[in-house]
Amino acid sequence: MEIRFESSECNGEELVKNFEKDFETSSLIEAEYSEFKEGVTGTVKEIHLNNAFVLCQDYKNTNTECYTLKVSHNHPVFLLQFSMEGGLSFFSNHSPDKKFILNKNAYNLFFIPASTYTYNYHSDKKHFLNIYFTESYLLSKMGFCFIRSLKKYQKAKKENNLSALFDDGLILNAKLRNIVNEFLNCSFDGMTRQSYLESKLTELVLTALMSTPSKKDSNKLRNEEIEALTNIENYIQNHLKEELTIEKLSLKAGFNTSKFKKVFKQVYGMPVFKYITALRIEKAKQLIEEYNYTIAQASYKVGYKNPQHFTVAFKKKMGYLPSELIK
Question: Is rRNA-binding a UniProt keyword of this protein (predicted)?
Answer without folding.
Answer: no
